[in-house]
Structure formats: structure tokens, C-alpha cells
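Researcher: First entry.
Model:
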Amino acid sequence: MADLELDDVTKVYVENDGNEITAVDEVSLEIDDGEFLVLVGPSGCGKSTTLRMVAGLESITSGEIRLDGEVINDRKPKDRDIAMVFQSYALYPHMTVRENMAFGLEESTTMPDDEIAETVESTAEMLGIDDLLDRKPDDLSGGQQQRVALGRAIVRDPEVFLLDEPLSNLDAKLRAQMRTELQRLQEELTVSTIYVTHDQTEAMTMADKIAILNEGQLQQVGTPLECYHEPANLFVAGFIGEPSMNFFETTREDDRLVHDCFEYDLSRETAAEVGDHSDLVLGIRPEDVELSAGSEGRHSYETVVDVVEPMGNENNVYLTFAGDHDETFVATIDGLQHVEEGESVIAKLPEEAVHVFDRESGRALRNRTLDTESVTDLRI
């Protein structure tokens, strides 16, 4: 297996009128041997273009891609020892599953036919599709086609897997099942993997590391929990998490953040973290907003329930500040807590849970305090 490194990789497209569009802007990443990295971001952010440059399907405008220390910018795709699974699966409709899985080995290796057959059959058994080997793609469900596409990549025993939104064509239940199977497979195969998705749930649940892109620029690289609890900027804070983090535009006056609907007192410690910035955004995750029927003192505000979304195990409660119905924010509470539309409740925004961002640059000045001692380790 191998380490993969992207060093200031840039892709610029030139339109017919000579106008240049930068799709990927100086992206640098390191994927360690056996690591599962998820590239996540909104549509058009450059994640699939980045993947295609690694695969050799797109040329690189500038920068370097290194595999185990060797620059592979000019290597042809077939010479990169990289296997890719496409969103459409790209199976040959006239071939059986067996033939689809064997095709790459037959075309790119000198492996004997009996060894190819054995490799295909053992991989199909691992994926649970050994009973489908003589069927054609049109006779398979979406989940089965996805397994065939994975099998075609696995049989090549590549140095790196590239997966371009491979679950997007599946229904929600099957997508959740396949996330688990993909994680198990990747751990068994210990292959360095880059997985592209716009689905933050896939990113949070599958990744060893997340790389978040926006408009071609890398916003943050870190573990899922680091990106969730310690976002580098407003974009990451708003993109990761569902429902999204609540944001309130404020102006600092002494040791207070002043919003149109409330004032938020800062402790000496938080004020020091914020520094001398004055145009600020106060952020808090919905699950950190505390609701109660009576006053809770500091950092507590009168609100009115606008909408309640029951989710079963939890409720998403959309709130407006008393006397102002223009700005809505969200609290996520236990599903057994009962609250009704139009009801008046007290919302508390605990200081240990808030984030503060510079409004102009979007940079995080202060992230929530994490009590690592409260994390329970269930490993035996």
C-alpha cells in the first residue's frame, strides 16, 4: 500500500473566450498508508475534479501529486496503480458480472486466466455477489451493481482507491447499509482511499480524516470530530452538522456582544480569546441550546416556538426571539420533551458551548470548550 500526497495542486480551465476558471486552487493533502480520507463540499467545489486529477483523468495545471514519494503527474491512468469507482458504476452492459470484474486484470496484467478466475470468485464471495457472477448489469439492483463496481476495483489490488459518490444512486436505507460495508471492506483491505461526497453524514460516519472544500479552496482538514467541534471558519461550521450551527451577527461593545434581539456577556477568558475584533458572529450548535419553562439566569432569553420537527429520538425546535419574528434559530431537544408551536420558552446559550467568528474573514476566533474527561471509552 502507499502514501498519497497532493502538493499545491491547481486546476484552471480556459473557456473559449479566454476567460480562466480556477476549479481547484492550490490544494495540499496527505493521505497516509491505509487511511480513509473523505473529500466533502457543496456541488461545484472542486472535489470530483481533484479526484480525477489523482486518477490521471484530468491534467494538472500546477502542483504535484506524489505516490510513495514519486511524482505521478505525467503517468497515464493505467500506470498509476489506482482504482476508481464512479458514481454511475460504469459497468459494461454486454458483459456478465464475472467478465466485468475480470476485464481490468485481463487488459492490464499478465495474470494467468485460472488465477484471474480465482481472484474474481474470491472477491465476489467477499462482497456477497458470488451467486450473481453470470448475470448482466441490467439484471441487478442498484446495490448489486455498486458491489460489482467495487469488486472490479478490488481485484486489481491497487495502491489507492478513489470513490466518486458511489452511494448517491441508492435509496436511504441501502445507502446506510453500504456505508457500513464500505468501512468494513476498507479496514480489511487497508488500502489508502479518497472518497468524494457532498453528503456530510457519509463524511462524518466513514472518514478517518475529512477534507472540506469550497469554491476550489481547502477550508479544513481534520478528524470528523475536530471539524465538527473545532471548525476553522464560518463555512465549515455551517456546512458540517444537521441542522446547521446557529449564527448571530453581533457587534462587540466592551465585554458584550450586541445583537438586534439580545446582548451576550463575555467572560474574561472568552473576551481574551476574541481579542480586539469588533464585528463578530456568535455561533452555537442546536443540541447545545437549552430550553426550559422558567428563567435560567445568565445567557438566557425569552423565545417563542415557531415550528417543531419531531424526529422520533429528538425534536428540532425552531425559535424566534420574543417580540421579533424575523430571525429563527434551532434547538435540538430530547424526543420525549414536549413543546408546542406558539409556546413561550426560555432558551439558554451556555458560554462553554458557543463559537465566535470574525465576521469579515469568517475565521474562528473561539471554539467551544470540549471536556475530554467526560468522553466514555467502551473498548474492552
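Researcher: Second entry.
Model:
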Amino acid sequence: MSRVVIIGGGAAGMMAAIAAAENGHQVTVFEKNEKTGKKLYITGKGRCNLTNAGDREDLFRNVISNPRFLYSAFSAFDSADVMRYFESLGLAIKVERGNRVFPVSDHSSDVIACLVREMKRRNVEVRLNTEVMSVEAKDGVFSHLVLAGGKMVHADACIVATGGLSYPSTGSTGDGFRFAKALGHTVTDCYPSLVAVRLKEDYIRELEGISLKNIELRMKEESAKKDIYSGFGEMLFTRNGISGPVALSASSYVGPLLAKNKQLIFILDLKPALTIEQLNARILRDFDEFKNRQYKNALDHLLPQRLISVIIKLSGIDPEKKVNLITKEERQRIVQLLKGMTFRVDGLGEFREAIITKGGVKVKEIDPQTMESKLVKGVYFAGEVLDLDAMTGGYNLQIAWSTARAAGKAIE
């Protein structure tokens, strides 16, 4: 039996603790917060989107950074395994639109309770309100932890599961990056991800709070033809930009590109189900029905009320003009606008608003089968502390479960 210490009692930390305990090890989790699973509690708007029920290929398609690194971890513990595992712990789960998996209760606290119960059953010791200050190694082998106050804790192996920099109020303040660097690891540049995107257009403030469904959002460099990102679904206008599932997923690509001074634009198709010809015919029908109305009062069937004034302004057509006087060229301008409303990217929301961190401990320095450091024997990394990130939809928690399980099971 080995003594295993785990830094962080979040999703990855709890799963790693259980996996190590299953192997018969004596496990202690050090969590600096007053309870475990603090960030897990707020995921999925408090409902906990614990994985995605798509197949393994779907998992890889939705990982943005270093998907190939996850081949072994996903093969050993994929989303089907995660679902079976939580059901075996007594959690009733359901699959919703987009293959998102939630507890039937819609309470993330039930997911945390399952893991806490299982840790207790496996005799895992959890030390709350206990901050780890450093991870020490001797001659390339893990030696001990140093706690706040100076106490040393010796063990045979250490799993760093501290999270990244997102939602620092939950304890993710970059401790793991500090530990990794001190052990000689490279930490890649970090950016907020799955976060709202700020836009440059002044009129965005007029759209704050408007929620759009069934839209298509594309992102590309201003001068390029090829899309960097394309997504279909829901979007929300914020005070200074956009949020909602498609915008959050697009944000996964934004940080590194802005760091290289790339000029990025979004193209919003408000009516992706209609071709240009079909939309033109639809507008013609509406204008025929409202032929005696002014242009400003003729788009009610087509758009949310608060979006109409901005579309009118951008179209450059006199709002008082009767629709039966609108020319074919003006109508085409409206069609082009509805199929390709363009916004310039100004930046990203802050880490305190970000669901995850993009960047982390360089995966080339980690064994992909065991999550053990290639530089320091006996030190393992799991979850968001690694340079791994994915789209919204349960994929990031899947990364946490898979890497944590691999780390916990690998310790001999």
C-alpha cells in the first residue's frame, strides 16, 4: 500500500482519490476551501453537465487543445463509462439536447454527494481548509508537500488536481501552475475560455439581453475566407458582446489569436434555415402583407422587437419609408444583413467569468497513459491544470474524469 496525496478536492481530485483508493492506497485529499466540489457546484448553471453522451469520436472532435494526448485516457474511461459509473454510485442521470448529461434532479450537489459518499466508503481522508504551499522533489522523485504553516507531509505519490485560473472565487488561483513550474515543467500561455466575447460595435449595448435561438455563428480572420469556427444554436447579447453556447464555444479559439494581433470577426446568420432566395421571398410576402406600413413596422414577423431598430439602422433604409416603395436593391441589403450580420472581436471576458482555462501544464511533459510527470517520478497531474480544453457541452468534465481516473489507477 502506498500513501497518496491529492491537491484539490474538485471533480478531478475526488475522482482521482476514489481511483487510487480502489487500488488499495491510503489517500489524503488537501482542499483549501471549506468544502469539496466548489466549482463543480456551479457548473451547468448549478445543474452539472457531467459529460456528453456522444460516441468517442464525438469526444475527440470537441476537444480543442491536444486531443491526441487523451486517446489512452478516453479509451480507458469514456463518457459511457462515466455514465455507468455515476449510476453505479446511485445517481439517476438523463440525456438532454446536444447529448448533454445531467443528474435527473438537476442538482449538481447530488453529483458532489455521490463522490463524497464514495470517498468516505473508500476511507479517503479529506482535509478541508488546508492549503498546500509547495510540492517538493528530491533527485527527480516526489518527496513531500509543504502545507501553510510549514508542516511537511511525506507520501509516495502526489496528484495535482488544482484546476486552472477560471472562477478564482472557487479556489482555482493557479496554484498547480506554480507547483508545476517549480518542478521544472512548462506552463503554456493561459487564456479565459468558454467565456463571453467582447465586441467593438457601439450598438451592442442596445441589444443587451436579447436571446436568439437557432442561429448560426461563424468566426474568421477579417481578411481570410476560411472559418475558424462555425456553430449552430443559441446566443445571447450582453452589455458589451455576446454569450450563450455558440459564443462560448467560439471563445475557445479567441485568446491565442488575439495574442498574435489577429483581427477577428463574427458573422451571424439570423435565419440559417432559409437560403438567400427563400429569405427574399419571405420578406416579399411580409412586405406584401404590410404594404401600407412604414419599414420600421414591417419586420415584426421576422425578428425580435429590440433587434429591429438596429437592423433598420444598419440597413441604411429610411425607417419611415413605406414598404411598397422599398427597392429590390434595398431588399437585398436587408437579406444580406440578416444572413451575415458582422461584428468585430474586441476581447474576452475575464477569468472570473470563464468556465475553463485554456492552457496549462505542457502535455508533452506528461505520460498520456498514466498522467505521471516525465520530469519528476511520483508526481501526477489531472484535470484543468493540464493544457487540455474542449467545447461546452460536458466535454471538459469528461477530460477531468478521464485524466483523474488514469492518474489514480496508475499509482502502484
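Model: Note on the second entry: The first strand starts at residue 3 and ends at 7.
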